Amino acid sequence: MWNVGADDQLTIQAGAMTDWFRDPAGAQRKDDAPSALFTSTDQEFTLIARVRVAFASTFDAGALLTQVRDDVWAKLCFEYSPRGQPMIVSVVTRDVSDDCNSSPLAENSVFLRITRRNAILAFHYSLDGHVWQLVRYFTLGDAPRMSLGFSAQSPTGSGCVAVFSQIHYRPVAVSDLRSGE
């Protein structure tokens, strides 16, 4: 479930054992994490949000999500690692998910960004909303339209709350997808 509250903050509450993930080992295929998505036909765009997560269980996360079809999508997560620390995680799914753990963080919130230029997508994160770090550079193929937005998950726990603030969407890509500038 999700709602928009004070200061245009979007709060998403994930229920127990919810996720968007298609295990390459075939163990699970989940797509039941709550999300708030909108459709974009822009061939260039940038979506940014500050994400704060009430971490309680391994893999609890708040995420930015982009989806072409039910079996073709990607998410950039602020996620609770098996080592008990927040980290940046990216997942690209083309029938099965390719999961990549990135940077562990000592912060309780982070800025996440998805940017698109034609068929190319880039995921970035920032601690301050100004200096961006590349997480992933990839494609989901040519797609005249994409759904994108926000999600929360709690695949091993009893639930999780993610708060998205300072949300910005613009129909322009950053000038350099790799550097994030």
Could you list some keywords that capture this structure?
six-stranded antiparallel sheet; 0% helix; 181 residues; mainly beta; Jelly Rolls; seven-stranded antiparallel sheet
Describe the structure.
Helices cover 0% and strands 61% of the residues. The chain starts with a strand and ends in an 11-residue tail after the last strand. It is built from no helices and 15 strands. The mean pLDDT is 94. The strands form 3 sheets. Strands 1-2-15-6-11-12-13 form a 7-stranded antiparallel sheet, with no helix packed on it. It is mainly β.
Please mark out the parts with pLDDT under 50 across 5 or more consecutive residues, or reply none. none
Based on Cα principal axes, name the global outline.
Answer: globular
- In the sheet with the most strands, the strands line up as 1-2-15-6-11-12-13
Question: What is the N-to-C order of secondary-structure elements (H for helix, E for strand)?
Answer: EEEEEEEEEEEEEEE
SS-derived structural category: mainly beta
Number of helices: 0
| Mean pLDDT over all positions | 94
Q: Specify the CATH class.
A: Mainly Beta
Q: Into which percent range does the helicity of residues fall?
A: under 10%
CATH topology: Jelly Rolls
**Radius of gyration, whole Å:** 15 Å
| CATH architecture level-2 label | Sandwich
By DSSP, the count of extended strands is 15
The figure for the number of domains is 1
Major β-sheet, in short?
Answer: 7 strands, antiparallel
Distance between the termini: 34 Å
Report strand %. over 45%
